[in-house]
Write a structure and sequence with these properties.
seven-stranded parallel β-sheet; globular; about 40% helix; oxidoreductase activity
């Protein structure tokens, strides 16, 4: 099944490669980059993928380079001459000041190397809704904009590496004469392995472990998230959105929110997800029960599940990212984004979040990353 024929999303128009197009996907093995690389190859683009390990997508030319060394980028990318650059990678640091230095510097150095080649026509940058919520150090605090978030909301009065990345993109685009787009995604769901921010295998591993130890599948987050509405971003939707913006003149030099188009409530979705995973659902306590705490010391249980079911990844840390799902599910503020700007410019993508989540569980099972449903008999 291709991204274009998925039953959980609206029909996707083709985005064929413009003449002479050569895409560079920065972060080609991540949840966002791998979905984009697959779509580019399917649409006939010449595609290069910059990543530490080789991309799993057939047809992608691997470029191994140190994103955080301008000298290494110059040596590896000096003659690549891409026409379209898609920046989907970042590196989490201990402080926001370090996030700014490292991740803002990554965008600056990458475009400082590629810009003088004068081949780049468009550069796309993937960020997220921390643009409106603030950095990890002050997440969801202070005077936040109203929901649904609008792209023209003023920046928060706080350090934020997304702002630094945008400013580097804007400066390079003006200096080297290419167009740009920014794609502010919410929690991204999709298929990738070894990714640091991946809710589906995280919740799948959580369900497998509590099922194997006779515990309920308790919602680990806040009552605010349980009772409220929220949106998510499917990785294929995000890929299509980036290609649309890169090939649509009306979308040039614009920042966009990108989510699935629907909203869900965890209190309705959690029992559906639990039933699909084969475990008994339970709602939240008065206080969150973070996965990072619940799953502390769960590695031996996972090792047993790996042996029993012939799973391919024995390292639980490469399957589940407890901290990231805790940050999403434990929020005490409503989070959802408006997509009017994209709709008015012609983007029509739409994904059923519930169906996408359940279908992704099946895909991770088929790949033997997650075990089959737990037997409750």
């Amino acid at each position: 099944m291709t991204a274009e024929t998925r039953p959980d999303r609206a029909p996707v128009p083709p985005r064929p490669a413009p003449p002479g197009a050569h895409a560079l996907v920065v972060g080609a093995t991540g949840i966002t980059g791998s979905a984009l690389a697959r779509r580019l190859v399917d649409e006939g683009w010449r595609t290069s993928g910059l990543s530490r390990r080789p991309p799993t997508v057939e047809g992608v030319e691997h470029v191994a380079a140190d994103l955080f060394s301008r000298d290494d980028l110059a040596a590896r990318l000096g003659e690549l001459a891409p026409t379209h650059v898609f920046i989907t990678a970042w590196s989490r640091q201990e402080t926001e000041a370090e996030n700014i230095r490292v991740n803002g510097g990554m965008v600056r150095d990458l475009l400082a190397v590629l810009g003088p080649q004068r081949s780049v026509r468009h550069a796309a940058l993937v960020t997220g809704l921390k643009h409106y919520l603030g950095p990890f150090e002050a997440y969801g605090q202070g005077d936040l904009p109203d929901t649904p978030f609008l792209e023209d909301a003023p920046r928060l009065d706080a350090e934020n590496f997304y702002y630094a990345q945008e400013d580097e993109l804007f400066a390079a685009a003006e200096g080297f004469g290419f167009t740009w787009s920014v794609h502010r995604a919410h929690t991204v769901i999709g298929y990738a392995t070894g990714n640091a921010m991946n809710m589906v295998p995280t919740l799948g591993a959580y369900a497998a472990i509590v099922g194997a130890t006779g515990r309920p599948f308790r919602f680990p987050g806040s009552r605010t998230q349980w009772d409220g509405v929220v949106d998510l971003t499917d990785a294929d939707q995000l890929a299509d959105h980036q290609l649309w913006a890169a090939t649509t003149p009306a979308a040039a030099d614009t920042a966009f929110n990108v989510v699935n188009g629907d909203v869900v409530r965890w209190r309705r979705l959690w029992p559906q997800l639990a039933g699909h995973l084969g475990v008994d659902p339970l709602g939240p306590d008065d206080e969150p029960a973070p996965l990072a705490e619940q799953m502390s010391g769960a590695e031996p249980v996972w090792e047993r599940l790996v042996a029993e079911h012939g799973l391919v990844e024995p390292d639980l840390g490469k399957v589940a990212s407890w901290w990231h799902s805790d940050s999403d599910l434990g929020r005490e503020v409503e989070v959802l984004a408006d997509m009017t700007r994209s709709r008015l410019a012609g983007f029509t993508g739409y994904v059923s979040t519930e169906s996408a989540l359940l279908n992704l569980v099946d895909r991770y099972r088929q790949a033997r990353i997650l075990p089959p449903a737990v037997s409750r008999g």
